[in-house]
Design a protein that fits this description.
Length: 189
């Protein structure tokens, strides 16, 4: 046997990709303490904390409007499965945190969907989980976005159409014939 054949099987590592955006990031440089260059390992039994207190949080946001500890991410394995997940907990007493459309108050927590948008104040963070098998640690890979992650989707102005009843006949069509609407049994169609 060669050393290649005797080598341990390589594990894939769960990686949490986080893409940060703030409208004033160029002026205030609140992300200057974050490492956007490479992946970082976090032990599975540690909690990844985000906030402005560098003594407590590994991921520092340099902004006085951010709480000392804004939120935490805990890596865990679901009961009776081999699936690994992240739990997000809001640790700010003053600022609500939203995960997609779910609002979290102080000490509220929820599972992090495999792809979601985390918002608090003017901060937007796109979180994407890349699944892995390692039980000892996970990795974080931070990215910076120049454009807003969550954008108001402005659709072109479309004419407002009236709802179509169950019988499929538009009321505007019936009224344009000069007739008043009548009730029809669905078996007559």
């Amino acid at each position: 046997m060669t050393s290649f054949e005797e080598a341990e099987t390589e594990e894939t590592v769960t990686c949490l990709h986080l893409t940060f955006y703030h409208p004033c990031q160029d002026e205030k440089m609140m992300f200057r303490c974050l490492n956007f260059c490479k992946r970082e390992q976090v032990r599975a039994d540690e909690t990844a904390k985000f906030g402005r207190d560098s003594n407590i949080c590994h991921y520092n946001l340099l902004d006085t409007r951010v709480s000392r500890i804004q939120f935490s991410l805990q890596f865990y394995r679901k009961l009776h499965t081999s699936e690994y997940c992240f739990e997000i907990k809001n640790l700010s007493k003053k600022t609500k945190l939203t995960v997609n459309q779910t609002e979290l108050g102080y000490l509220n927590k929820t599972d992090l969907p495999w792809k979601c948008i985390i918002c608090f104040g003017d901060y937007q963070i796109l979180a994407e989980i890349q699944e892995g098998e390692s039980v000892d640690y996970f990795e974080t890979h931070l990215h910076l976005s120049e454009a807003p992650i969550l954008q108001e989707r402005s659709l072109p102005c479309l004419p407002s159409l009236p709802p179509i009843p169950e019988n499929g006949i538009s009321p505007s069509f019936s009224l344009s014939q000069g007739k008043s609407p009548t009730e029809i049994d669905e078996n007559e169609l």
